[in-house]
Amino acid sequence: MRIWSSRQKVLCGGLLSLLLAAQLPAVQEEPLPDTASFISEFRKTLHRDEKLLSQYTYTDKETLYSLDSKGKVKKSETDVYQVFHAEEEWQTYRRQIMKKGVTVSEKELEKKDREEKERVAKETARRGKQSEEKRREEQAKEDREEQELLDDVFAMYDVQLVQRELINGVSTILVTFKPKPDYKSRTKDGKILQHIAGRAWIAEDDHELARLEAEIIDPISIGAGILAKLQKGSTLNFERRKINGEIWLPVRAETLLNARLLMLKGYNVRQILEFSEHKKFGADVELIFGEVSGTVPQ
User: Fold this and answer.
1) Where are the domains of the chain?
2) I need a surface site. Which of 79, 187, 192, 224 has the fewest CB within 10 A?
């Protein structure tokens, strides 16, 4: 009986695998979704779900790096906030617990909490005096402006579905976008976004944005270039994750910004935002600044 060496076994196994592969039909990867239908579903997710978001609080750590002309760090500052969302944006409270690397004192926090409660109470009273018709008009105006911007954005970009990619265990579709050269933007924000191109990763099952990489492809002038001019090459990277299986929230954002302010001062910075400690509280639980009872772990 002849005994094969390990080398012979490996070679034989490799040849057998090649022969089998040659005789089996090629496995076809599932085709990418139809572009128009997929983007249409993605657009629907861009409307904020205020009610669901208002059940969450999280920590926002912001680190700002000032850079020299060669991109080296000159100095850095870190601020930390507790973010308490509400069903309406004006009710949201960004409670600063660290300022420029120094923890905010309890006395200062108590002062800021009182001021925030007073602000919300005054605004609530002011809005309570508005007629129902006035509130409907304001809401209709906000909805109309949002719709106009979305119409503008989805008309200005040439969008291509590229491939599937797995991000944090989620199947996503990689999408590239770039402005159409002859498109004339109809909204103020659209005129800025028309200078931006990039890539987006969209979750295949619920069409939510999982990751974004965007870059300014030609300079953006603000106030005809008098107030500021954002330089080509500035970037934004943004990442979101699904929390508690029900809502997508930000986990990280990084901006590299090169600009000139008031036609004179150069502004070269890198900012990193890190979102953590996402917690959910029930609608029947009283929310106290700095404390959330009945929290659900992430």
Assistant:
1) 35-280
2) 224
